[in-house]
Design brief:
four-stranded antiparallel β-sheet; 15% strand; Alpha-Beta Plaits; alpha+beta
């Protein structure tokens, strides 16, 4: 358990995802505009070639401004072909640029996800949870909504790793992450805080409602190597009070977690008393 976390002071970057997305949209619009103009010009030039050829033949003219009309028609045909080839070349260049931007978009999205999510459990990571907590505190100060931070620790997790191996430990973490995620609402945050410790940020949740959330985490079992392992947890929480800072809320929840974990070790009932 971590007694005093280090909140992130600066807001996270989106690693250029928004800018690259905007560039891609502009490129798509430019691509569409270029194709439409090219089609109109090519059709216009082609129509001009046929019209000129037909008109000259109908009038019986063999020259245009002293130039053989067949030479003039060929010149127009060459002009149409040259413009068409130039248009194709520009489109190839534009497509290449678009592919490069798409690759950058994918890379930026990967970096964004790495900055937000824990790769093992798929939950939000500690960095994102700290930033979200900071934002929710600011919102609570403005609007006065309830806010509770819950830290959850898996009991005897080291023994599971030692006895069944780290793959079994990873399986326990992933299965518990699913249970944790299903126990929260869309407006809440479920995050892996570090190791076998998790965090829930419950928005617009009153203290009286907390027990209904925590009871969903009880009775958890995982099947490992053909054996069913009962998993128990200890939880500590701290409700936001006006003036609380991020580190104060986390520290209060962590103290309560440590207290309840000692009670679990002694096999005594856990009392969720309000942290002072």
């Amino acid at each position: 358990m971590n007694n005093v976390p280090s909140p992130i002071e600066n807001e996270s970057s989106d690693y250029g995802v928004a800018k690259i997305s905007a560039d891609l949209r502009r490129l798509e619009r430019r691509d569409l505009w270029a194709w439409m103009n090219a089609v109109v010009i090519i059709l216009g030039l082609t129509g001009a070639v046929f019209s000129l050829s037909a008109s000259l033949q109908w009038m019986g003219m063999k020259t245009v401004l002293g130039v053989d009309y067949r030479v003039a028609v060929r010149a127009l045909v060459i002009l149409v072909l040259a413009f068409t080839l130039q248009t194709i070349y520009q489109q190839i260049k534009m497509r290449k640029l678009q592919r490069e931007l798409e690759e950058q978009h994918v890379q930026a999205e990967v970096f964004r996800r790495l900055a937000m999510f824990d790769p093992l459990t798929g939950l939000y990571n500690r960095r994102f949870a700290e930033q979200r907590l900071k934002a929710e505190i600011a919102r609570s100060e403005r609007r006065g909504h309830a806010l509770i931070v819950v830290l959850v620790d898996l009991n005897d997790f080291k023994e599971i790793n030692d006895k069944y191996g780290h793959q079994a430990g990873d399986l326990v973490l992933k299965e518990f992450a699913k249970r944790l995620s299903s126990s929260t609402r869309g407006s809440d945050v479920a995050a892996r805080w570090g190791g076998d410790e998790f965090m829930m940020l419950l928005v617009d949740c009153e203290v009286e409602q907390l027990s209904r959330v925590l009871v969903r985490l009880e009775g958890f079992e995982v099947r490992v190597n053909g054996k069913t392992l009962p998993i128990t947890v200890a939880a500590g929480w701290k409700a936001y009070e006006p003036g609380d800072r991020v580190e104060e809320i986390i520290e209060g929840a962590d103290r309560r977690l440590y207290y309840n974990k000692e009670i679990v070790k002694k096999r005594e009932p856990v009392v969720l008393a309000k942290t002072q």
